[in-house]
Amino acid sequence: MKNGALVFFAVFIALGASWCGFVLAPELQLGGAKQTNILNSTDLYPVGRPGAANLGLQVYRANGCTACHTEQARQTGIACDVVLTSAGKNPEAVSNLVATLKLNGLAKEVADAVSDQISAAGGKAEIRIVATGPDIARGWGMRQSVAEDFLYDYPVQLGSLRAGPDLANAGVRAPDANWQLVHLYAPASEVKDSTMPPFRYLFDVRKIGGVPSPDALVFPKGFGPPAGYEVVPKPEAKELAAYLLSLRVNVPLYSAPFTP
Amino acid sequence: MSTKEKISGGAPVLRSSPATEGGSVPASRLVSSLAPPIDRSCRVPLLALLGGAALWLVIGSVLAMIASIKFHAPDFFADYPWLTYGRVQPAADNALLYGFCIPAALGVMLWLFARLSQAPLCLPFVPVVAANLWHLGVLVGLVGILIGDSTGFAWLEFPRGGSVLLFAAFLLIAISATATFGQRRERELYPSHWFLLAALLWFPWIYATGNLFLIAWPVRGVVQAAIDFWFANNLLFVWLGLAGLGVSFYFLPKFAGRPLQSHYLALFAFWTLVIFGTWCGIPQGAPLPAWMPALSAVAGSLTVVPVLAVVTVIWQTVRGSTNCEPKGGPFCFIRFGLASFVLSASMLITMACPEISRVTEFTWFGLAQTQLQLYGFFAMTMFGAIYHLLPRAVGFEFPFPKLVRVHFWISTLGVLLLVVPLAVGGVVQGLKWANPDVAVVDVSAATLPFLRVSTTGLLLILLGNLLFALNIFGLTYIWKIALLKKAIAIVKTSLEAEGETGSAFASLRRDKEVRA
Lengths: 260, 516
Known about the structure:
The complex is a heterodimer of chains A (260) and B (516). Chain A is of the alpha+beta class and 260 residues long. Chain A folds into 2 domains: 36-74 and 137-245, Cytochrome c-like domain (Cytochrome Bc1 Complex, Chain D, domain 2), CATH 1.10.760; 77-132, CATH 3.30.1390. Chain A is built from 9 helices and 6 strands, in the order αββαβααβααααββα. In chain A, the strands form 3 sheets. In chain A, strands 1-2 form a two-stranded antiparallel ribbon. In chain A, helix 2 packs across helix 9 (235-245) and helix 7 packs across helix 9. In chain A, 40% of the residues are buried. Helix content of chain B is 75%, strand content 0%. Chain B has helices spanning 3-8, 17-20, 37-41, 43-69, 85-117, 125-146, 160-182, 191-216, 223-256, 263-276, 291-302, 304-318, 330-352, 354-360, 364-394, 402-433, 440-501, 504-515. In chain B, helix 5 (85-117) crosses helix 15 (364-394) and helix 15 packs antiparallel against helix 16. Chains A and B meet through helix 1 of A and helix 5, helix 7, helix 8, helix 9 and helix 10 of B.
């Protein structure tokens, strides 16, 4: 290369190409994305998070929760489960047959064959589509996370390290707001040996006045503040808990189908 | 004119310039006034850039220590919101990258451009202003992260105020560097030129894209993640690769005592790095359209090509060289940096493979790769370059030259103890995450022994950084004292002269009296 203009040219070609590929193209493909229909339904997805949950996302961002938690469930594939819905007129024969068959984690053709066998014996079977993979088995989602799940989030907090569990489905796994708050205040009280740091600064510990606060946390036995004191979440803590409860991957979509 | 300049002066320097130029005057013999004008022109910009960088380096490693200790004692500093793990960890990473790596690279680049151009630095006051802007930007950004103002995007956490300052400062330094480049006496480019010029163009483009589309006018939904992945890869892998290799390809032949083998191979590495490397970085499991991770996986496997080219260049240049620099000096840092680059690039390529990424994605393995790239490769290369050039630019020897060797060994051990356990622990962790029967706390527990060792590594790195900062600050101090002495001497001589002939003011007064 003889001169600087050539270097400029090289950068322009190389970086320009990847800019078009990974900045412009996804924006063209997804930037104008709208709500989609839930699979086999006219309901729209996603509906925006409730106001408190949206504020909670900002608490999540400010405290860098994403340093340890991802928000994306992965799946390795799809399988079919055959579920017996009715034993029909000859229940004994059907149940004998079913006992000999493998019903879970089948390929589509195998599932069809099994279902046919059961119908031939007089029973009725239904084929259910399920996502597979360790994340799904851990309950981190009914399916993998897809682009639609993040439509209204800013900033999108995918995360890159699972020092703790994935949170994509946190609202389904632990739907109790008190559990979420207690876990934030003292993680080890809800999860023994947890390495999560406590977020006590999101809470006030105060003397119980005339009437105990309706927001005060209910602790498991052996934990909690000394007698006469109560732990009351600050607004940030409530918002964060609302956000965590709003995290759910339990809706079937065209791009990530399963049988609910 | 010093001997150094005579050697490399008007002759065609291209093939041999880094190998011969500057080698003739040992740094120990230099005194301030004898530093050649090219080196001298870089002095203040370099001290401004590197002094702040050394400070951020130490602050960053203290923050990294705090973050690491939290894994062994979650209660550590738990009541201080600004020291919570999710703020300290990104602050530590940003302090290392934006506080040390980039300004250090910019300083080294300015010196290299002046040296390769055979001309003093153009507009030397511009980089001085820029250095102060840059370090102010880092301060604003780090404080922003610690008080909870982080943007939430990986490697772009600095809030608006900080990133605007960084962007402006980078442009100013690029102006000065480009002007110096334009003044070069030898028109043909040396391989380092390609890498460093590309780095100067690369950063404003990706940094502007990231900040405009993620923070100023944010795009919707998961496109944010795509742009952030693109930005992070282009900064951490491509930009650091360009700047680090550019610097290494200058010093490698200089230390090995023979020209770079060969320029064509280095050019090939350059082209393939910018063409393939820039498409890496989309994780395999990302919830993006499937073509994106697939394309990244292909680019990842093609990145083997530039890595092999770099290995060949290093091997051919170092092999058979007889007059290597003495051991323990800056050369060790450069060599270690190059080895780390090859290793970290290999880890990156490995992680881009879909089957392997099933295990390594979301584990400490990725962080091991990042740390190896940031510290093992880039920071170490910069240490080597700075230890070589700063005494020449300032005109004084480092106050503690023996600590250079100590720094090298402590940092080497530190990097090994940081990266190896994280990488191994990451694989262990990934295998456990892949087995749904292993409880979450058991997965964390299994990684703890590895994290303990890595904390030791961080401690050693902190010590090494302190030694580095000690030398940088010591040198700045010596220079300032010398400057002060010089100023006093000038004032003294002018006072003595005034005693003989009277001051200008006195003569003015006399004139007025006469007129009156």
